[in-house]
Design a protein that fits this description.
alpha/beta, 39% helix
Length: 188
């Protein structure tokens, strides 16, 4: 665990909390990550306030660009979600898993999404609007697989695992649920 020196501080930018952490062990590198609604920027202790301002702005820009690239266009609307399902169905199911509707719904208490094979409808929890696109794609592939196999048997999982980031996405969702205390499993 890294210790922080006493020169750490927080600044407020419009709707963006920023925490700068200075480290005597850090010599040249600058890094940043989001912790909830706070941008945490790690810099060498020897940097001047002007250099700090430069690097905070630079890291905020880089992180925003990365998040924008990772964001799925499917999060914009139900129509975009349906279009993404069509692309995923074509790629992983040869176009044979076609839902009649796909829509965003209020946060579900026990699952990330659900599928009703009888009417071929898929509902996706609003909690997934901010996950990386590859995680949302996994959830959509999972629900599309239910259009082919209703239960969670071996045949179902063989279909789902055609999506190459299945295990990684399941881990992401388990971590997200655990951190938030939701109790949602990634396999439902």
């Amino acid at each position: 665990m890294r210790s922080r020196d006493n020169s750490n501080h927080q600044r407020q930018v419009p709707q963006q909390k920023i925490e700068v952490r200075r480290s005597a062990r850090r010599r040249r590198t600058v890094s940043a990550y989001r912790d909830g609604d706070t941008l945490v920027v790690l810099i060498p202790a020897r940097m001047t306030r002007a250099e700090e301002q430069h690097w905070v702005a630079e890291m905020e820009r880089k992180l925003r660009n990365t998040e924008t690239r990772r964001a799925s266009p499917a999060r914009k609307s139900d129509d975009a979600l349906l279009a993404r399902c069509a692309e995923l169905s074509e790629r992983y199911f040869g176009g044979s898993a076609v839902p009649s509707s796909v829509r965003w719904v209020a946060p579900m208490r026990t699952r990330w999404a659900s599928c009703t094979p009888v009417d071929r409808s898929i509902r996706v929890s609003e909690r997934l609007r901010d996950v990386p696109s590859w995680v949302l794609d996994y959830v959509l592939v999972h629900e599309l697989a239910h259009l082919k196999v209703a239960g969670h048997n071996a045949e179902f999982w063989t279909l789902v695992r055609e999506y190459p980031k299945t295990e990684r996405a399941i881990g992401y969702l388990q971590g997200l649920s655990a951190a938030a205390g939701w109790g949602i499993t990634a396999e439902d």
